[in-house]
Structures are given as C-alpha cells and as structure tokens.
Design goal:
By secondary structure, the protein is an alpha+beta fold. The chain has helices spanning about 1-10, 15-30, 35-40, 80-110, 145-150, 185-195, 250-260, and strands at about 120, 125-135, 140-145, 155-165, 170-180, 200, 225-230, 230-240. It starts with a helix and ends in an 8-residue tail after the last helix.
C-alpha cells in the first residue's frame, strides 16, 4: 500500500489530497480517518488536475464516486391518528350543520308541505295539487280588515291548498282556504265579511313563498268566490298562469265553481 501511495503522490498525474483521503477511507473505513492537513503533509497536492479523474495507476484501480443512498423519510406515527381525528370532527360538524339547516327550513315553512295527492277531478275538471298547509292562528295568515276580524273571532282551524289545471289549453292556478269556526253563526258572519269587497282575505300559499315550477307569481286579480258550509267557510281564488287575469273572466269563474269541491288538505 505504501508503494501505491507513493506512486499516486509523485505520478505524472498526481492524486489530490481529497482523493487520497477518500482512498484511505475506502481501505480502512472510519477506524483511521485522516484530516486534509495530514494527507497533504505526505506529499499530496491540495488541488485536482482536469485530467485526474480519467487517469489510471499501475497498482490501484481508479476509484469512482458512488452515489450516497438516500433514505426515504417516514411520516411520524401520529399522523394517521391525527388524520382520523380530523375526519371525525369534520363529519360531526357536517351532521350538526345539516340538522340545524333542516330545523330552520321546517320552521320557516310554517307547516306548509308539498302535495301528497298528485291529481283529483272536481266538477269534471282535473286538478293537480301543488301544496297544502295547516294552521290554527288564522289572524296571522290574514290581511286587511279580515285580519282584525279574525283576531277578535279566533278560528279553530285553517286549511290551505294550491292546485294547477288547464282551460282551453291555458294553464291556471287555484288557491283554496278553508276557515273553520266553533259554530255556524260565526262562520256565516265571517263569510259575509270575506265576501265584502275591500275587506282583505286569507294569504295564499304562493304569497307566503310556496311557489312551484311553472306556477303563478301571485293570485292578484283572481276570480274569487266565498262558500259557507255549516261551521266552515271556503275562499277560492283562480288566476291564469303566464297571462293577465280578470276577476270577471267567465273561464276563471267556472274553474272557481268546479274547485269548490276540491280537498283543502292532503
């Protein structure tokens, strides 16, 4: 080995200090690690000539740089548990938001719900029910003078419904409101008040936000009828969908008469 080292130190293409130090490291490992100054003291130059990397020696084969293997870092063991914990928190939060949203939606609907009955025939006309609702505070769903009247004469029950039908190929919408009282006398008095022009009425479901696809935007200028039956009073409104309505339109009046026997609840 001494002969080889001397050859490397005095050869035509001398070995640098760094290459000599690496050669020793290959031969003896970490047991005798030499510093750069110690190797330079043995006669090796502290520089690398451009052609030294391609030079061959007589006794010792040329040493090439070997890539240092990289160790792949492994994630800490707590990461999977933390991910599962975060997933559980997000799941619980999502369920809570969904339940809260559902509760708010049910409260805002005020008992109104989509129709359960797809269609029904009354007076020879086919009607498709679009919505229905029940309430016991009639005054809160009334407007005009009828609101004041009902606050002084509370009802027992309010049932409302909306329907859609056609007449001569034109779509029309129906709004029903059945107001029930404790006795026929109060119902008759309410019917007289409700049939007086300018006294207001019972808000329809569309007015309270229960719209449906292809339905009317309002029941303004509707054909309007009032029917008293024992302790109950039925208010019926009918309008055209997609075109102007007139309270005296004969076609709308006929539809209102036919709708008098429709159910006001699902």
């Amino acid at each position: 080995m001494l002969t080889a080292m001397r050859e490397l130190a005095v050869a035509d293409r001398p070995c640098s200090v760094e290459q000599a130090r690496r050669l020793l490291a290959e031969l003896v490992g970490d047991q005798a690690r030499m510093l750069i100054g110690e190797v330079a003291a043995e006669g090796f130059v502290d520089a690398v000539t451009p052609d030294l990397a391609t030079a061959n020696t007589m006794l010792i084969p040329r040493i090439t740089d070997q890539p240092t293997p990289q160790r792949r870092s492994r994630p800490p063991r707590w990461l999977p548990m933390a991910a599962l914990g975060l997933l559980a928190v997000l799941l619980i939060a999502g369920v809570a938001v969904a339940m809260n949203t559902t509760g708010q939606g049910a409260s805002a609907a005020q008992g109104n719900r989509p129709a359960a009955t797809p269609s029904v025939t009354a007076g020879g006309v086919s009607f498709s029910q679009k919505g229905s609702g029940q309430a016991t505070d009639c005054a809160s769903h009334a407007y005009g003078d009828l609101r004041v009247w009902l606050s002084q004469h509370p009802c027992h029950d309010l049932a409302r419904a909306t329907y859609q039908t056609t007449s001569d190929g034109h779509p029309a919408a129906v709004a029903l409101a059945d107001v029930t009282f404790g006795d026929p006398a109060t119902a008759k008095a309410f019917g007289t008040e409700a049939n007086t022009p300018g006294t207001g009425g019972i808000a329809d479901l569309v007015k309270e936000g229960a719209h449906w696809t292809g339905g009317p935007t309002s029941f303004n200028d509707a054909a309007y009828t009032v029917l008293v039956r024992a302790a109950s009073v039925r208010l019926t409104e009918v309008v055209w969908i997609g075109r102007a309505s007139n309270p005296t339109d004969p076609a709308l009046t006929r539809l209102a008469t036919a709708a008098a026997s429709l159910p006001a609840s699902s």
